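Translate sequence into structure tokens.
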Amino acid sequence: MSLQQIDPAAVQRCLAEMETHLHEQLLPFWIERSPDYDAGGFLTHFDRNGEPTGETSKTLVMQLRMIFTMASAHRAGLGDGKCAELARHGVDFVTQHMWDDAHGGWHWICERDGTPTVSDKIMYGHSFGVYAMSEYGLATGDPRGREWAERTFDVMQRNATDTRNGGYFELFKPDWQLQDPGPYGGDRKSIDVHMHLMEAYTTLYELTGHHLYLRKLREVMQVLFERMLDPEHGTGIAQLALDFTPLPAILFKTVWGSDRDAEAGSRPLNNTSYGHNVEFAWLLLHTADILGEPRETYRKIFEDQVRHAADYGIDREHGGLYVEGPHDGPGQPTEKEFWQNAECLIALLDACLLLNDVKYWDGYVNVHRFVFDRFINREVGEWFALLERDGTVRWDYMGHAWKISYHTVRAVIQSVRRLKQLVETLET
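Result follows.
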């Protein structure tokens, strides 16, 4: 069934709900609470009531994601200049305190005042060094955006490129020596890191137009397409050996924040993340736009990812998107995490527009309703972290060492854009 089966009034209702949430609840939550005006940067630990928990450590990813959020919000015309001011506030802090002058690259965790406590070099965090600083440069015109994005890119090329197998090593000791194998992760690669490098290099190329970043972007895309997707189903493989042999995904010894199953062992080999798949899908279309290529070029890859999530990941009984499941069957386990549902909103709207199939609108309505009825903490305006299948709150904090504004604010800004585009499409 084509999009003409969609009721334009239903789209308008979803759009109005999204815009109200963005302007009156979600963005104000972070503008009002997160800036640390005493020590610099951002505070990120908030309880169910939106109150500071007393934990003041600062992780690289959360500081950079706050910079990205504020820069992207300003670029979207939000905040009346306040978001640009806060992005600069964040850039001041990380460039003064979180760059390792001795070895190059970013410290992983620091105390509130910027004193480093964990100096491991993690490619996940460095991808956001490129992404956030590039977005900041695009949003504000501050030359520091390009300077620090390129500095991060350069240190990654020198230290993390796998010249034998392709792609990048991901986990390093403070001096850029590769981490030990096994639980320390020195012998693994992930679709997660390489997907974030795609979005980072896309934004760096958008900022600079430089041929080097275009070339490296295409190299990362080739690795993703040829080595990190299941050859039968087209869905993402979470972790792989250095030669890209698929491996059961494990958690690493380096502290990452709020791991959903910190005491669990490895996941099954036949397992894929709905959240990473749909995030990769919509980011790929965005990359096509920046490259000036037709979205149809990547239709097959995009459709494989989103169709799998729509068919197996969406809970038809209770609503919302499961966390993960096999490449060829329904989701297991059945809990629901905030970020997968946030990314799914964007991908399903892109699927409506690209694939012209009303089933993706039905999927969008399902996830949209679950988000607004279950995930959003109406009393403060942010989203709960983790829910049981029926929507019962399992993790109730609003911010953490891992959970921040990045997925929620970005998803709502991007969904508003696509809902407006869908309205225009249905009216023509």
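Note: DSSP finds twelve helices and 13 strands in the chain.
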